[in-house]
Design a protein that fits this description.
By secondary structure, this protein is of the alpha+beta class. Helices cover 25% and strands 36% of the residues. The chain has a 15-stranded mixed beta sheet that branches. The two termini are 18 Å apart.
């Protein structure tokens, strides 16, 4: 699987095996070109869309290394398939000052370029992400980091991506996700980070649940994507919704 993912060259490749009768439950593994990833949100959405297009819409269950992930799929009147994943229970952690300083240095960011209303945290909803909020769209647009150094830091902290975000409005965000631990400079869409980010926003009081948050990602690399994040007041899990397009057949 790792060899196939390396040849395919996408940020992640999902491998599905039907589990039991009925074709609605799957054992799923995710591989980047360099490593297995316990959970990948955008590959989950894409796989859900592909299955809905092949087998028809409905509810699916993906058994992943991070836990069981329900996926609800639908197809609208125009034939557009949509998938919504429900994350495992999230967790939000503080970032050690030394680790934050090192991350900023490797990204060539300064503390003055951070948005003080969105403090740095490590967020988990299947895998861990360091969330850093830029104070300006210009800062987010300028991505030039030290690949090997950031990769080493992320491996030490067990991070899958660094979730760099900028808040355009109350419920609208832009994101970029460096992914050097997977051998990828930048991820065009990161559903796992979106789920973790929804939990992060709730934990720091940046949104009032129930709420839907929109994240636009991949624009600065010419691969625009849109992820919808639903944050509930009662249920801890986060739901992430998206569509998909065929880029190879």
């Amino acid at each position: 699987m790792l060899a196939i993912a390396a040849r395919v060259g996408y940020s992640e490749t999902a491998f599905l095996k039907a589990h039991g009768a009925g074709g609605r439950t799957y054992d799923v593994k995710f591989f980047s070109p360099e490593a297995e990833v316990p959970f990948c949100g955008h590959a989950t959405v894409a796989a859900g869309v592909a299955l809905a297009q092949r087998d028809g819409p409905g509810d699916l269950t993906f058994n992943t290394a991070a836990g069981e992930v329900p996926v609800a799929t639908s197809i609208d009147d125009r034939g557009q398939a949509t998938a919504t994943l429900t994350s495992v229970a999230p967790e939000i952690l503080d970032v050690a000052e030394a680790d934050l300083s090192q991350a900023l240095e490797l990204l060539h960011w300064t503390r003055d370029e951070l948005d003080p209303s969105l403090p740095p945290r490590i967020a988990y909803a299947g895998v861990r992400h360091l969330v850093l909020a830029a104070a300006t769209r210009k800062r987010l647009a300028q991505l030039d980091y030290e690949f090997d150094g950031l990769k080493a830091l992320m491996l030490r902290l067990d991070l899958t991506t660094v979730d760099l975000v900028w808040r355009e409005s109350e419920h609208e965000f832009h994101a970029r996700n460096p992914f050097p631990v997977g051998g990828v400079v930048e991820d065009p869409a990161t559903g796992a980070a979106a789920a973790a980010f929804g939990a992060y926003l709730r934990a720091i009081g940046a949104v009032t649940p129930p709420v839907r948050v929109r994240v636009r990602q991949g624009e600065d690399m010419g691969r625009p994507s849109e992820l919808l994040i639903d944050v509930d007041a009662d249920a801890p899990e986060i739901r992430v919704t998206g569509t998909a397009v065929t880029i190879a057949d």
